[in-house]
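Notebook, p. 212. Picked up where the previous page left off. The plan for this session was modest: take the two constructs that came back from the sequencing core last week, fold each one, and keep the raw output in the notebook itself so nobody has to go hunting through shared drives later. Recording the first one now, exactly as returned: residue sequence, then the structure token string.
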Amino acid sequence: MERLNRIRLEMLCRSENEALARNIAAVFTAPLDPTVEELTEIKTAVSEAVSNAILHAYGPEKDGPIYLEMEADKTGRITITIEDRGIGIEDVQKAMEPLYTTGDNRERSGMGFTVMESFMDKVQVNSSPGKGTKVTLIKLLDRIHGF
């Protein structure tokens, strides 16, 4: 399918970059004329994926890269990948279970992947211990008027 637009950027694994990624997703998606609901869903899913990388990928002492890639095609399909080169996830299926968290239950709800799945049409997680994690989010817009 012919691409309308594509971006790829690298940011440090820092909490302030979650808002940056969320805003980039909004600006990237806006020319496609999404509904307010679609735009909110995309921003929230990106926020959750980037937050997961910030919280879990490199541990508390390390900085590392997070990669955000977004692609839109003429059918209204937006594909978003958030990738890190961190510690990876040993059991992806377990990590995707609602309420599962490796952190303090008082600080984390364990609902990140569940939120992503509820807002996106498809969520795919690939991870290898010691090599990192790649989260792919796919959203099919109901209509496409931009470009």
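Okay, moving on. Second construct, recorded in the same format:
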Amino acid sequence: MVSNNPKFVVLSIDGVPYDLLSRLIDQGYMPNMATLVSQLGIRKMRSVQPTVSCVAWSTYMTGMNPGKHGIYGFIDRRPGTYEIMFPNSATRATEDIWQLLSRTGKRVFAMNVPTTYPPQPVNGIMIGGFLSTSLEKVAYPVGVCDYLRSIGYHIDSDAALGRSDKRAMINDLHATLEARMEAMFHFLNEESWDFFHTHIMGTDRINHFLLEKMVQNDPEYAPAFFNYYHRIDEFLGRLLESLPENTPLMIFSDHGFCPIKYEVQLSRYLIELGWIRTSKKPSHPLSIDPTKSRAYCLIPGRIFINLAGREPQGAVHVEQYQQTREQLAADLMKLQDPKTGEAVIRKVLMREQLYWPTGSHGIRMMSPEQVAQADSTFGKAADLIAIPHDGYDLKLGLADSTIFKKTELEGMHTYDDAFMVARGINLSVDNLEIMMLARHILKELRVEPPQDMDGTQDAITPIF
């Protein structure tokens, strides 16, 4: 039953896989989550492709696929150049749920959700996520920054410590979490709100750098891993005590995680096959020789055809576009693990198979020439998207000398094993995808979703 004054709370926990959360519950590390799951159940949820946090959270907050909201990866190319950019809220092409709710008079709060920087004006408070450049610019309205500074708020933990000093990384993760939760309870209790969303990013960081050590039961780092999740559970318990029992609530992740077998330097593979020719003096991630390269890569697994008329020095004519894509896709599917011979790439998708900006899901009826020239439709989408098997983390690797590497990075994102725990809202059990959530939130708060919003169960078909 919908209350006379509906409210809605989201606690998102980045990158926590369904199986890991189930294990943490079963082994007693998360007793508050265990109680909640015993009452409400837990289900798997699919993410988005490519499985990158900024893409997944943009998809969540708009209820639209990347072909509409325009965020395709952590980095993107500047149209008409070989330069790169970092997409953020200013480059997103559609409104998010906080803006939609604000326009109907709802009071909103968001903290630390990826791709909410720069913070957009809302009817409430918006505190940006990990791409925020400084504490002085992280929040709307700007006066919120004074409070954040007073409590020693961290925009994000220092992920680089994961490669150099894991003990320092763990301490920094805890300091970041403590300040974030202090801010959460302050705004929860002191501000008026209808929709309240806090995001925990540290789980993504600790999974990237300690997941394998947890799996191997490392005597120092496995306990540290479990202790971090236990601390999150303690804050979850406090949150549940702070809310009326009938408050609609979602707790979920944006993607899963698995241990890394190899980091795969995809550009190096394409160099060895003759698809890419590097420049003699590489100076940035896209330092290719454009006159001799038929393709180039961006992370993770996004491959662009170096197309004449679209790229400034394109080497592939539009009449060759479809044949070139098919040849390149076939070569990508041949990539094998050097030790086991297992396939690295699970599937290669054409961009029109993955993005459907005009509404219908699936391949649009377009000629190869139309598909090649469809940047007005597909924005900055890659021409091919390589989807790896779990364990093979696709990297850029333009300057690397080898294709397969192992580094300090231990965990990678996965597509089909995010988790969802929901109270007071009816969600799909068998076909749940992160794109669906915005529509449900808006309806629960009595706001009609936009007509062009995707996110209905009938409109979504699993990619695999």
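Notes on construct two before I forget. Confidence is low (pLDDT under 50) at residues 358-364.
Flagging for discussion at group meeting.
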